[in-house]
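User: Serine/threonine protein phosphatase 2A regulatory subunit, Pisum sativum:
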Amino acid sequence: MIKQILSKLPRKTSKTDSDESCRGDSSCRSDLPRAGKSSRSHGGNDGAKSNAAKRNSSAAVFPTSTVSLIEPLVPFKDVASSEKMNLFVSKLSLCCVAFDFTDPGKNIVEKDVKRKTLVELVDFVSSFGSARFSEPAILAMCRMCAINLFRVFPPNYRANNRGGGGENDDDEPSFDPAWPHLQLVYELLLKFITSSCLDAKAAKKYFDHSFISKLLELFDSEDPRERDCLKTIMHRVYGKFMVHRPYIRKSFNHVFHRFVFETEKHNGIAELLEIFGSVVSGFALPLKEEHKIFLWRILIPLHKPRSMGAYFQQLSYCVTQFIEKEPKLASIVIRGLLKYWPITHSQKEVMFLGELEEILETINMVEFQRVMVPLFWRIGCCISSLHFQVSERALYLWNNDHIVNLIAHNRQVILPIIIPALERNSRSHWNPAVLNLTHNVRKMFMEMDENLFLSCRSQFKEEEAMLNTESEKRKEAWKQLEHAASLKRTIGNTAVLVSPVL
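Assistant: Predicted structure for Serine/threonine protein phosphatase 2A regulatory subunit:
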């Protein structure tokens, strides 16, 4: 009996239920533009009716607990200082409506209302006083950014994905039609994060791991303007929230690892590496084992993809930062480069040689001696390359005084490796510029140590004569076999050697 009586009593709707029902009902959002439009159409004669209509329209969109009966279209200058934070939350909630920007003629008035509100919010955050942003304001900011920014890119974004560059570097970048509004949201988020009024301890539970992961996913956008904004914001997040730094570095690892070993398709590798370059420059010494593992397992394998040209500058900067922090890593990096050396990709070979020169400029003698044999064996192969740019770039290494000094101190080991490549070039290379550079390097070696140079050259000639003799012996042996096979009678299906028809 008591239960039946209680069931007939009117049930009070909770604030949480009101909030959830408003966010879940699509009609709540569709009423927003009409509220904004009607609030501007009323004149001054019926001001009381206008204010009542505005209050009712905004209450239909936002829960009362959020807006505190403040009309979101009211300017900040028209409310008391004590109410500005509530108005800030209301305006953020007003901007939680997403529009379709693929059709420029759709929702023109509503889009303009949202744009003006975003501009007003940016100005408010920029000029905010010494007070702290409240937790409801932080929550409202994160919610507004999530609704406007976090999205899955349509299939056509990845249909012609350039993988961060490579085959289609000359293609025009794709621009998001919603960028005028996205730019304002990014600007507002950046102003909010960098504001001294944002308490990192209070905000860290809202700018959490999930929020950071969603931001990282946006780096795959094809719009370079968006990636540039994300780069700045992610760098500020890393600086502001120290508690999230290990997670951000780990998330970077996952993105890079998946790019290298799974997809080789991502548009934001250059921007992520640029962020990480500034992070590396701030590492304390001695370097942690975690950072050294990142260098060996992530940065060095990033030299593998064919699209390396799109992020080579940022990658090279990160690597050189590690070596400047700890010079002992130079030999490890050089071994990694030799492991992933692009034998069949000439443009990548030129880039690798450029990075090698940067590393050799800072390497010490001990680390150099550890890798000089395999290193100059590879450089010798590059000198002999038929691609003139590769050969030319390898010979340009001798224009660097520090590298020449390293070679001079270890000439007993290096000259016997390099002289054969120089001799072959001087005899048969087709490019005049390469021939000129080759003669200059030969002259430099002769001035450095004439006796050693002549000894290496005579040894090369002896080895070449020996190889020619062995080649002639092989040819003569094959001729004898062919002659012997031609004298034998063919029986059944027995295979025999036949002399080639000239």
